[in-house]
Amino acid sequence: MELGQPDRRLVLKGAALTAAVVGVGMRLFDGTAAAAPAADGVFGYGVASGDPTSDAVVIWTRATPPPTRRGEPVAAPGSGLGHPLRVRWEVARDPAFRHVVRAGTVWTSAESDHTVKVDVRGLRPYTRYHYRFHTAGQTSDVGLTRTAPDEAERTHALRFALLSCSNYPAGLFTPYRAVGERDDLDFVLHVGDYIYEGDGDDEAFDLTGYRLRHALHKADPHLRLAHRRHPWITIFDDHEVADNTWSTGAGNTDPAGDFARRRQAAYQAYLEWMPFRLPDQAAPHRGTRFFRRFRFGDLADLSVLETRQNRSAQVFLPPYSTPGGGFVPVGTPEVDAALADPSRHMVEPEQLAWLKETTTQPRRWHLVGNQTVFTPIRFPGAVVGFPDRPVIVNSDQWDGYGADQSALIAHLAAQPTSAGDAVFLTGDIHSSWANDIPAGPRAPGYASAGVEFVCPSVTSDGFYELIKGTLPTGTPVATLLGATAGAVGGISAANPWIRYLNGVSHGFTLVDVTRERVQADFHHTPVPSEAVPDPRTDPTTRPVFSSGWQTLAGTRTVVPAPGPIGPRSDEPH
C-alpha cells in the first residue's frame, strides 16, 4: 500500500530514494553487488534453512558453477549461464560432521538459477543440527538449524524473532546481524517485504530482475549471518512482487502490462531463493497455496497467512489515494459501502475458513503470521495530512476488507478460552505496535478478541522518516521527534486499544511463548540525534531492548511486561 499523495504519507512501504537520501550515504540497488558473490567461490551466497517441523527442515544454498575455460563469464544470478552441478549435502549432530545423520546428492542448473533446496526428513524433534554442501572441490559454510519443539505430551520453550520490511537502499541490515548473533531462537519469522522490487527507473519486472534482487540480499553479510544461524519461516507481502499488489494488478504497473507474467516470475524467484517448502496443494485454496501451519506441541500453533495472491482490488478515492489503495475517508457513502462489501476479500474464502478452523482446535496459543495490520485502526485526518476529513482508514490493511475482518474478529471473540487465544504477528507498517483487537462497539469499555504485535521495519522508512520528508531541510532532529510523537499520540488517542506505538525506531521483535503468556520485546535502533541523524546508516549500530509487552493466557488483552524476556526454560537436544 502507498498512503495518499507522496508528501502526505504517514506510513511508507517501498520508500523512493531521493537525491537527498543518496547524499547521506545510503546504498542503491547495484547489479554488480548482487552478482559479486558468484565470483567468490561456488558457495558465495551462503547457506540458509527454513520451515522447521518436528522431523524435517529445508536447507538451501546457491552453487555457482566454476568457469570451464579461461575467459568464460561467471554464472551470475539471472544470467542463465553455467553448466549443471551435482551437489552433495550433509546434516550432522556436530559441527565437525563426525556424526552425519542424513546425506545425499542433488543436481542444480541454470533452470533453477543454480539454487539448491533439499527437504531433509527423518530428523528428531527439538534438536540442533549442522549442515553443509560440497561440489567442484569446494565446501560451503556450515549452517546451524533446529527442528521444531513439537513433541506429544511435552511443552518446550518457544522463542523466535519477528521481522519485516528490509528495503536495501534505506539503510544497513544491522538488525539482521543482531538476530544472527543470538543463540536462543527456535526460528526467525519474516512476514513480508524481504526484498523490494525497486522504484522508478530501477525496478524488477522479469525473472532476471527478481533473481538479482534476491541475490543482492543474500550478498549482504548481516543477512547471510542470520540465515546461517537460524531456520526461517517466511511469507511474502507485496514488494516481493510489486507495490500494493492485488489479485490482478499492483500500484506500480509493469510497462509491458502483463501482471500475471510479472507475478509468476516473482514467485519463481522467491521459491528458488528462499528456504520455503510449498505446502500440500490438496487443501482448498485458489491459485498456488502458500499459507501453511506449524505446530509446537500443545503449547501453540502458527498459521502463516498469504494475503496478496487472491485479494480483491483495494478501495481508493482520489485525491486521497490511487489504484492500489491507501488512505480513504470514512463517511463517504461509496467508500463505506465498498469497504463493507462482503464480496471483497483479503484472502480467498477457503483460506479464511482454514484459519477459523485452526482457531477452534485446543492449543494454548494460536499464533498468526500476518502481513498487514489486522486491528481496526482509525487515523485522524488532520494527523495524516487530510484536515478536511475527520476519520481516515488504510484500505490496504484488513480495514479495507471490513467483511472479512469483522467475520474473523467475531469468530475469535466467540471462541471459549479452552480453545486458546489468538496472537497476530504482523509487519508492513514500519513501526512498532502492541494492540488489543476490539470486538463489538469500538469505544471505551470494548471487549478484546485477541491481541496483535506489529514489528518495526528492518530498514524501510517509518513515521519519522516520512514526517522528515514533509518538513524543510535542516529541521532540527528534536523538532522531527516532537512531530512524530504528536502524530503517534493522535493515532493512539483515536484508538484506545493501541497499548503501545513507536513510530521512530527500526529493528526486530523478540517473541517468547509460555503457557502463561506471550511476550513481545521490541528491540530498537537508537533514536536519531544531531550527531547520528539516521542510525540506519551507522554500521556500528545494533538494536537493543526498548519496551516489552505481554498478553496473559485467557485475558486476550495486552499489558506491559515486568521486564525483558529472560533465559529459556529449556534447550533443544
UniProtKB/TrEMBL annotation:
Q: Please give the Pfam families that the UniProt record associates with this protein.
A: PhoD, PhoD_N
Q: Where is this region: Disordered?
A: 525-547
Q: Where is the Phospholipase D N-terminal domain?
A: 46-147
The PhoD-like phosphatase metallophosphatase domain sits at 160-522
| Listed name of the protein | Alkaline phosphatase D
Origin organism is Actinokineospora auranticolor
